[in-house]
Backbone:
């Protein structure tokens, strides 16, 4: 690490820090990392360069308050940001952000959707024409917002590369309500999205003390203050050819809560993340990034973009030819459709899953797809069709040793509710009793839910 105070190399790297990020104002820490200056000396070094030309151009540092410094003239008027030592500066800044994002992830995890899907909303969204045409920009008057009642049963055409629309693309349909109910039938373990651990990157250059947060509540403000710079780091490292670092940064950003992020920021991040994965010739990483970004946009309430990214992921998985990956993408897409109030599209995914599992001879997968179909039909007020699918699923489960009791109980619970709506009260209560017997001493929360359901029905 350089210890010289205000030397030519430091001045050049300070200038590069602004250029590679495309930012007019930077915090002292980012400047210290970019210029490879000891953090304890950074304030003194940077303050000593205020008003001093950083190179032959008129670029000078000016105080911007709150530990930040501005560059004037703005960096967009400056020469190529990646000439000279620009790529090394981009790497240093990107790696420091990567370490900080890992800390953020450990403190706050990822966003948890707030509410379960509303069955009434699901039932009302049966007209396929209400779905935004994936070949057109999103219609702000499109799909309605789901509301919550606690019932647990309840796009641009991508090109062949998987690249999303460019940074200027602003398709957005915002939902402030993002459901959190994770029905075991609709969201089986195989539908889990990748995690940052799937995007390993060995950090070699970070020597500054890591950013520390006194409380998890401080993570969100830090992300808000640095959001543009974080996307800038992904962009800078993609342009600099450090694609693996750009991919790792994007994966961590997609794994954090969307918070107050502007939709344009998400679209720009998606563009550069896809570019990095494509240029790195990592098709599986591209598919994994699309899975993460689809969930992120859904959690942000932008279901139109979430559906677009889900379709792109499916196409990427099919190009890879991995059956399990193809199935996982379909499960995730179905979950997005359920959350956005489009159960008819979720049913299409489940039918495709059931057919694929049948062709592969995967009886457990077929049972899961049939059970999810039944749960979705029940939430759509189609108890007759729901009971048929759930009964078919239960027959498959009966022939599968070693399956999860929670999963089997979920099928029985939904089947009992469907039968009750059909007027078969005695059989319905027996199915609920069977579900409860599987859950006792296994899942107390689910067992209590079944008890409440049974008691409520028996009192009618």
Residues:
């Amino acid at each position: 690490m350089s210890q010289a105070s205000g030397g030519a190399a430091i001045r050049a790297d300070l200038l590069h820090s602004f250029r590679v990020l495309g930012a007019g104002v930077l915090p002292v820490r980012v400047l210290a990392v970019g210029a490879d200056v000891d953090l304890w000396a950074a304030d003194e070094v940077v303050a000593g360069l205020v008003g001093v030309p950083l190179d032959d151009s008129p670029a000078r540092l000016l105080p911007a308050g709150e530990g930040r410094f501005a560059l004037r003239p703005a960096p967009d008027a400056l020469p190529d940001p990646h000439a000279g030592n620009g790529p090394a500066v981009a790497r240093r800044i990107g790696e420091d952000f990567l370490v900080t994002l890992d800390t953020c992830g450990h403190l706050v995890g990822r966003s948890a959707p707030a509410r379960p899907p509303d069955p009434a909303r699901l039932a009302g969204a049966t007209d396929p024409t209400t779905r935004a045409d994936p070949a057109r920009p999103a219609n702000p008057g499109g799909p309605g917002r789901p509301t919550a009642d606690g019932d647990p049963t309840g796009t641009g055409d991508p090109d062949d590369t998987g690249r999303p629309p460019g940074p200027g693309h602003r398709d957005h349909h915002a939902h402030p309500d993002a459901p959190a109910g994770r029905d075991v039938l609709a969201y089986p373990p195989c539908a889990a999205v990748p995690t940052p651990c799937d995007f390993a990157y060995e950090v070699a250059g970070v020597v500054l003390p890591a950013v520390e947060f006194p409380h998890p509540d401080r993570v969100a403000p830090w992300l808000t203050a640095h959001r543009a710079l974080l996307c800038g780091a992904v962009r800078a490292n993609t342009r600099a050819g450090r694609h693996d670092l750009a991919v790792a940064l994007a994966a961590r950003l997609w794994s954090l809560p969307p918070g107050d992020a502007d939709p344009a920021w998400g679209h720009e991040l998606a563009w550069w993340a896809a570019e990095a994965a494509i240029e790195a010739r990592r098709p599986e990483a591209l598919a994994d990034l699309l899975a993460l970004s689809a969930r992120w946009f859904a959690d942000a309430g932008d279901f139109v973009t979430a559906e677009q990214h889900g379709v792109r992921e499916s196409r990427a998985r099919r190009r890879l030819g991995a059956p399990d990956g193809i199935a996982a993408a379909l499960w995730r897409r179905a979950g997005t459709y359920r959350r956005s109030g489009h159960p008819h599209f979720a049913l299409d995914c489940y039918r495709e899953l059931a057919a694929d599992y049948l062709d592969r001879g995967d009886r457990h997968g077929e049972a899961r797809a049939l059970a999810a179909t039944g749960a979705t039909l029940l939430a759509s007020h189609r108890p007759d069709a729901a009971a048929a699918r759930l009964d078919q699923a239960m027959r498959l489960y009966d022939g599968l040793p070693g399956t999860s009791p929670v999963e089997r109980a979920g099928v029985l619970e939904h089947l009992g509710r469907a039968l009750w709506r059909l007027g078969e009260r005695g059989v319905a209560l027996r199915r609920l009793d069977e579900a409860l017997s599987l859950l006792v001493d296994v899942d107390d929360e689910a067992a209590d839910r079944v008890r409440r359901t049974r008691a409520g029905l028996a009192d009618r």
About this structure: The beta strands are 25-27, 60-65, 68-72. The chain has 17 helices and three strands. Residues 119-403 form a domain with the Serine Threonine Protein Phosphatase 5, Tetratricopeptide repeat fold (CATH 1.25.40.10). Residues 86-108 form the longest helix (23 residues).
